[in-house]
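dumping this here before i forget
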Amino acid sequence: MKDNYVLDTNSLISYFRDIFKVSSTISQQALNIIDDAFNNSKYKIIIPSIVFIELFKKWYKDEEFLAKIRYDIFQFLRDKENIAILGIDREVLENLILLNNIQFNFDNHDKLILATAMVYQYSLISSDGRIAAYNNTNKVIPAIIS
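structure:
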């Protein structure tokens, strides 16, 4: 049986750190899982479409950089059999509504990503400490790999 994961925006940026010219915010273990999934189908990965919306919102600098995101990331991923880029559906929205604990102060992007992991019961690759703390308290998904 394959291990299954959901990626958040920071984990995708960390993996493609050379394109974004940033340091990784996730562990080498998490980077290895993503690399295995992207290169040899060892793992199944879901990337919620909100991740790409967040990328475009935060990283859109110019047409050249947008083209890098489109061709070097999006097109690279969309052709992989074990990588799914999923939109927001009813089950995700129903789980998002459950994430109303004000103590953890999630933004809607984070709620949608966590809600996606909840629907599929996949582990989440994320460096977001608030999500990890929430999951430690509420055990809504199998694990957070940071």
